[in-house]
Amino acid sequence: MIVEHLSLVDFRNYAEAELELRAGMNLLVGRNGQGKTNLAEAVAYLATLGSHRVSADAPLVRDGKNAAFVRARLAHGSRRVMLELQINKQGSNKARVSGNPVRTNELPRYAQVVLFAPEDLTIVRGDPSARRRFADQLLVQRTPRMAGVLADYDRTLRQRTTLLKSARARGMKVEQLTTLEVWDDKLISLGAQIIDARDRLANDLTDPLKAAYAAIAGDDHAPEIAWATTIAGADPEEDEIDGHAGSGSTEEQFRQALLAKRAQEIDRGLTLVGPHRDDLVLRLRGLPVKGYASHGESWSVALSLRLAAAELLRAESPGGDPILILDDVFAELDAARRSRLASVVSGYEQVIVTAAVAGDIPDPLRENAVRIEAGRVLGLLADHPLEEGAA
User: Fold this and answer.
1) Would you list which residues are annotated within the binding site for ATP?
2) How far is Cα 320 from Cα 131, in angstroms, rounded to an integer?
3) Any idea which positions bind ATP (predicted)?
4) Cα distance between residue 13 and residue 123, in whole Å
């Protein structure tokens, strides 16, 4: 799979932009703040239905406008498909596939993209929400219907938590809150699907993660990946990642955990059990990456997670390789990791690399270089090789 053409209107700092992309390597070069990352962000949004930089859509729309438009022509072998997305500052977004209106959550069926950016260091060093977001975006890419499950869970969670807060304010007792059971049933049904899907994801990422880490770091530090779940007694949001394996189905364990926490939930006005409080625990040499890994090791784990995700999608997708985007990451890596990363990604059908300084990019990745300046795509620089160290 490759993106052949990208068109933007009122997206970030672009009034209008047209970008031709090729199979193989594509390098976007520009000083910081010129808009190269915005191009990468637009491509990735089609596959993940979210930004890697902001949690809301409003910042994606150019100042003074009500909507932004992203259009991409994708090639799957000899087949072409046009994806169109209208991102609204307010209200629901709209989407089309080859001219036909579709729900926005249909877009990941057609676009497979894996993006790595400096912000990904928060996946290994940040709070649990960053790791949940990484996992859930990958879940949606693997199984697009999970977008609906995750959205329904979030709505149910908000409604249940509102009820708990109301009960707390009114001083209600556990036995008085009979309507909570209705929300429990919905929360359990949706949450169990998420927990089970996340668990399968962690298992499926295990081997690709080990292979990617060894390739990037040049060492075998025995990386591990597993979920710490509240239904098993852990509470990662309170820095408690050790739980115990329960018996019975996921739904049964979820229900028992909710019952055990019922009084605490009413006292605090919070839903204390569910996938919204779980954490994806990463370990090297048996120790949690967060708090124990060096800076270089943390970078290697973050890179390896994205590369493992790419390998997983590559193995499962009938559309071929996912589009791989490396957004301004080479400046953060030492020479050895740069070289190893270049070697790993060179086999992908299409790779998009952004950089402020061309000298940071290994020679094999400098093909099809395009200059980006002040929200303008200035054209292919194939006839004008970039100078070493030029911005």
Assistant:
1) 30-37
2) 26
3) 30-37
4) 27
* Residue whose C-alpha is closest to residue 205's, from 336, 78, 304: 304
Does residue 386 surpass a pLDDT of 60? no
* 305-317: average pLDDT: 92
Return binding residues.
Answer: 30-37
More confident residue, 96 or 243: 96
List, in sequence order, the alpha helices (H) in the chain.
Answer: 36-48, 121-125, 128-142, 146-170, 180-217, 250-268, 289-292, 295-316, 335-345
Taking only Cα atoms into account, the Rg of the chain, rounded to an integer number of angstroms, comes to 22
- The structural domains of the chain, ordered by start, are 1-112+320-391 (3.40.50.300), 119-316 (1.20.1050.90)
The DSSP annotation for 30-73 comes to --TTSSHHHHHHHHHHHHHSS-SS-SSSGGGBPTT-SEEEEEEE
pLDDT in tens, 43-79: 999 988 888 888 889 999 999 999 999 999 999 878 9
Residues 201/138, Cβ–Cβ less than 8 Å: yes
Residue of 246, 240, 312 lying closest to 281 (CA atoms):
240
**3-state DSSP assignment of residue 188:** helix
Say if residues 24 and 324 touch (Cβ distance below 8 Å): no
In this predicted model, what pLDDT tens digit does every residue of 318-377 receive, in sequence order?
778 999 999 988 888 888 888 889 999 988 999 999 998 878 888 878 878 888 988 888
